[in-house]
Amino acid sequence: MMIDLENYNEQIKNEFLKTVSGGRRPHAVLIDGGTEKEREDIAYLLAKVYVCGNASDSEACNNCSSCRKADERIHPDIVKIKKPDDKKYYSKKDDVKPIVEDAYQTPNESKVRVLLITEMQLMKVDSQNVLLKILEEPPSYTVFIITAESANSIIGTVLSRVSRFRIGENNDESELSEKVLNIVKEVSSALMSSYEYDIIKALAPLDGNKQVTVDVLKALSLFIRDALTLKYNGKVLIKELENEAKSISFAFSTEALLERFDSINEFLKLTAGNPNYTLLVAHLCTKLKK
Predict the structure, then answer these.
(1) Which three-class secondary structure string do you get for the chain?
(2) Pair 284, 277: CB distance under 8 Å
(3) pLDDT for the residue 173
(4) Residue 58: its pLDDT value, please?
(5) Furthest-apart CA pair in the chain: how many Å?
(6) Residue among 190, 133, 132 at smallest CA distance from 158
(7) Could you read off the pLDDT of 95-137 as tens digits, one per residue?
(8) How many Å from the N-terminal Cα to the C-terminal Cα in the chain?
């Protein structure tokens, strides 16, 4: 079942080389975008570079026993972790905590052991938090490769601990409209204000407008994630709002930012139905100024 990198476009090839070129071997990589199959195929290609005993700076040799086993997806040091089919989400106790324990298992044949955590968008915030410490300080022989439909589903504190591999040109940093940027900027100022009216005024353009509401919620999610990432010296995704993200990062605790990040994404899920947008925006104001 060998997958050839040549089957992918130049953007993906370049992203792959950027991840591992020069002998770089990040201890944790997030692969997001594309289809589920593309994400998993790239994850296995990347894992093969890690376990190959004769790998160059950026390529596996494709001839050794480790490469052959990786191609057949039977290598004992590439461990695929997936959400159980009978569950909607990864269980914090039954599925996520065992990943932390598994990270301390030593490799069988290679110098490293790769834990491939698939479709992390199906892992809630409290479950993702369980992984924080092991992602920050993993054993020297353990590598994490994470796949997710979108980086937007990954909390900022996790994102700050991984190297990101994006599939496809349309990613989370796609250009935001001037209107959306201005609204997020107003919300940022309102969050720093002691007057509750300021947040109501900042979010007023959302009232009754589904598309604007969805676009702003997505941008706010990225913005709060940027603020979280800055706490760990990470890079922001919305460059135009970097100064605002720095201010929010300094003013709010990690816990407070995570609460707002979680609330924004819960409201974003509600927009998939047919909610009363006036009530939704009013409730959002309360959550953000909590």
Answers:
(1) CCCCHHHCCHHHHHHHHHHHHHHCCCCEEEEEECCHHHHHHHHHHHHHHHHCCCCCCCCCCCCCHHHHHHHHCCCCCEEEECCCCCCCCCCHHHHHHHHHHHCCCCCCCCCCEEEEECCHHHCCHHHHHHCHHHHHCCCCCEEEEEEECCHHHCCHHHHCCCEEEEECCCCCCCCCCHHHHHHHHHHHHHHHCCCHHHHHHHCHHHCCCHHHHHHHHHHHHHHHHHHHHHCCCCCCCCHHHHHHHHHHHHHCCHHHHHHHHHHHHHHHHHCCCCCCHHHHHHHHHHHHCC
(2) no
(3) 45
(4) 66
(5) 66
(6) 132
(7) 999 999 999 999 999 999 999 999 999 998 889 999 988 998 8
(8) 52
pTM summary value: 0.61
Encoded amino acid at 28, one letter? A
CA dist., res. 167 & res. 165, Å (int): 7
> Quick check: 151 and 30 in contact, CB under 8 A?
yes
Length of the chain measured in residues: 290
CA proximity to 187, closest of 225, 139, 226, 223? 223
Quote the CA–CA distance of 247 and 184 in Å, as a whole number: 13
250-278 average pLDDT score: 84
SS (H, E, C) 225-247: HHHHHHCCCCCCCCHHHHHHHHH
User: Under 8 Å CB-to-CB from 28, ≥6 apart: which residues?
Assistant: 135, 138, 143, 144, 145, 146, 161, 162, 163
| Rounded-to-integer distance, Cα 29 and Cα 267, Å | 28
Cα–Cα separations (whole angstroms), residue 147 to 70, 187, 250, 277: 17, 31, 30, 33
